[in-house]
């Protein structure tokens, strides 16, 4: 059971840690807050590792003007791997060196998933690019590394490149997937995502034992190495679920919208098939569209102790999540914690919210430095830039539209650090400084999800 005691706020100002500096990780014997811990752990697993430049402190006369401290001169591949592996492998650590096999070119070496990857790096017309087919061009090394890390987050154990389509092997047979209940933690062999749920969390191949999500079955191909008898290849029967026991999806009848834009946002939630049980449907779920916010004087709000500014989510519609703690503790958190936004992939929202009803009560354990950073932002403009747009057909008008989803959450003061947007040199939001546009933390227990923000737009001319 989760403790109902409110956080201790009697600590004097002198006893507090320096603002926004790293604090001691929450003790392992502290009780988990429940489903929000599961949600944040899911976000951590899906987070892209941050690029970490391994600086060379030696003054190198041969360093080109378009490289900075990441350039280490002419060092062999073995030396680069030794430097990147020092003190244990860290995802996203990288350096640049002169290529020994191709004089005049450069090599990008970076660490990911316990391996050291090497790319041929080139610089022409003030742009960086790799020696790969269909290579993209980047204005900075940071942007290039961010893109490479994003690719490796989606593709696991592929030897440094995206796998290409291969011809069907003569000894391959179709997989025979059946629903399977796992007694231990299990991850999808295709996408790497966690298999959520209490029972029938995923699909297991009867032949080779491959474990995947139901949605990933069609992507794994016919590569089963064990041929099963014909009688075993029948499709599993689906259990009939009575209509009365099915979970109601979000609808206009449940939320009772007050404007047309809010109706459009609710239809997008319905398209995502998000059950209404995850929300407090009778709460104040305001719309922040242009028509509903005509009397707003300033787009900024302030909350927390010490107080921090955050954007009013203009252009978005808010849907409050079900409470995760007692009423007394909720009152203290809402008055003393800061508010920020976390961008989500619309197709992953339902799976993340489903973790609310799992029985996983494990604590936030593990080495602090091994966890990916969770990036929140007080700027709704920055959250908008990070949120993926999903194209869909509006169920009412049939028009082509796109929707975005952002999580609004409370974050505990002194549990996070501030940082700038990697690779960005231009101002994102005039109300927030570039160096503090992101609030980052590795502590799942320091974040309490509060509401889901939804935004819809016409997608006729969007290139998605």
Automatic annotation (TrEMBL):
Pfam families: C1_1, SH2. SMART domains: C1, SH2. Residues 174-224 form the Phorbol-ester/DAG-type domain. Keywords: GTPase activation, Metal-binding, SH2 domain, Zinc. Residues 70-145 form the SH2 domain. Transmembrane segments: none annotated. Residues 1-10 have a biased composition (Polar residues). Residues 1-33 are annotated as: Disordered. Coiled coil: none annotated. This is N-chimaerin. The lineage of its organism: Eukaryota, Metazoa, Cnidaria, Anthozoa, Hexacorallia.
């Amino acid at each position: 059971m989760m403790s109902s005691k409110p956080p201790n706020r009697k600590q004097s100002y002198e006893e507090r840690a320096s603002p926004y500096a790293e604090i001691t990780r929450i003790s392992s014997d502290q009780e988990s807050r429940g489903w929000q811990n599961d949600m944040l752990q899911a976000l951590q697993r899906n987070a892209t590792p941050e690029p970490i430049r391994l600086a060379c402190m030696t003054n190198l006369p041969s360093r080109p003007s378009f490289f900075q401290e990441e350039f280490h001169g002419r060092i062999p591949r073995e030396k680069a791997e030794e430097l990147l592996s020092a003190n244990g492998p860290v995802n996203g650590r990288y350096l640049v060196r002169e290529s020994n096999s191709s004089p005049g070119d450069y090599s990008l070496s970076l660490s990911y998933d316990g391996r050291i990857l090497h790319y041929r790096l080139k610089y022409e017309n003030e742009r960086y690019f790799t020696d790969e087919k269909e290579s993209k061009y980047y204005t900075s090394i940071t942007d290039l590394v961010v893109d490479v890390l994003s690719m490796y987050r989606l593709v696991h154990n592929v030897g440094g490149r995206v796998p290409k389509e291969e011809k069907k092997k003569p000894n391959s047979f179709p997989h025979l997937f059946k629903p399977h209940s796992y007694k231990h933690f299990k991850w999808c062999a295709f996408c790497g995502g966690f298999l959520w749920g209490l029972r029938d969390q995923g699909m297991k191949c009867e032949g080779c034992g491959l474990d995947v999500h139901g949605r990933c079955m069609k992507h794994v191909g016919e590569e089963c190495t064990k041929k099963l008898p014909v009688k075993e290849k029948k499709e599993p029967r689906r259990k009939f679920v009575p209509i009365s026991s099915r979970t109601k999806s979000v609808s206009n009848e449940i939320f009772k919208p007050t404007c047309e834009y809010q109706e459009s946002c609710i239809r997008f939630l319905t398209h995502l098939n998000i059950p209404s049980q995850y929300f407090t449907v009778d709460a104040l779920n305001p719309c922040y569209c242009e028509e509903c916010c005509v009397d707003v004087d300033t787009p900024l709000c302030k909350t927390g102790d010490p107080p921090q500014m955050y954007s009013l989510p203009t252009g978005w519609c808010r849907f409050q999540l079900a409470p995760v703690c007692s009423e007394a503790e909720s009152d203290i958190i809402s008055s003393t914690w800061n508010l920020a936004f976390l961008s989500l992939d619309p197709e992953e929202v339902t799976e993340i919210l489903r973790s609310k009803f799992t029985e996983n009560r494990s604590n936030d354990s593990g080495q602090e430095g091994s966890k990916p950073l969770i990036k929140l932002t007080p700027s709704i403009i920055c959250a908008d830039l990070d949120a993926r747009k999903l194209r869909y057909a509006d169920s009412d008008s049939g028009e082509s539209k796109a929707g975005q989803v952002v999580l609004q959450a409370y974050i505990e003061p002194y549990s996070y650090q501030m940082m700038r947007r990697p690779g960005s040199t231009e101002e994102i939001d005039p109300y927030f400084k570039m160096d503090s546009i992101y609030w980052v933390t590795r502590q799942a227990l320091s974040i309490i999800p509060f509401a889901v923000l939804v935004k819809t737009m016409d997608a006729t001319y969007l290139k998605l």
